[in-house]
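Researcher: We plan to redesign the surface later, but first we want a full-length starting point. Tokens attached.
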């Protein structure tokens, strides 16, 4: 385990956030103008003078390259657009919930239909469904009944769901996972 001193920690933090203006202490930097044209390699002092003359900031964007790359830009606007992009990407993320339905190997028809109806609703809402059967005592000898129940359950839901994980015995329980059918995920025959 490496132990950092305070100066190293501060330099690490600055590299993560990007050094700006007077914080840049390299001998030479490669400078990119605000419009994207390459200005060449120069001292940070000269690059800062160019940035100040344009009422912009000098921002180190590639600290690990040799020489480090700096860009002349409006740092406040850059930070604002960066946070805006992050918010936009969070909006596009879909949160997938997993609902669990528990069955037994000796389930009654009415109970089976009730569980199918609930799982049908979950799949229509776009949630994954985890279907499990717990074997107790001597039921573990009759796992074939569990396979039959889970396969019948999957057949009853084939309109709205597709199998992600086939029925599998794991210890004393058998588990199957179903995904909702979407335009991206067409049913497999």
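Model: Full-length starting sequence:
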């Amino acid at each position: 385990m490496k132990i950092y001193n305070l100066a190293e920690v501060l330099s690490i933090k600055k590299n993560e956030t990007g050094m700006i203006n007077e914080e840049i202490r390299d001998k030479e930097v490669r400078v990119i103008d605000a419009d994207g044209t390459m200005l060449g390699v120069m001292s940070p002092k000269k690059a800062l003078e160019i940035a100040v003359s344009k009422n912009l900031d000098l921002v180190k964007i590639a600290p690990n390259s040799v020489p480090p790359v700096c860009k002349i830009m409006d740092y406040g606007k850059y930070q604002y657009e960066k946070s805006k992009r992050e918010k936009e990407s969070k909006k596009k993320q879909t949160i997938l919930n997993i609902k669990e339905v528990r069955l037994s190997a000796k389930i009654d028809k009415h109970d089976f239909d009730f569980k199918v109806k609930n799982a049908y609703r979950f799949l229509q809402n776009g949630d994954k469904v985890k279907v499990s059967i717990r074997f107790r005592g001597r039921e573990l000898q009759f796992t074939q009944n569990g396979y039959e129940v889970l396969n019948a359950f999957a057949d009853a839901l084939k309109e709205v769901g597709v199998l992600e994980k086939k029925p599998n015995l794991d210890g004393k329980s058998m588990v199957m996972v179903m995904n909702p059918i979407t335009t991206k995920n067409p049913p497999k025959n």
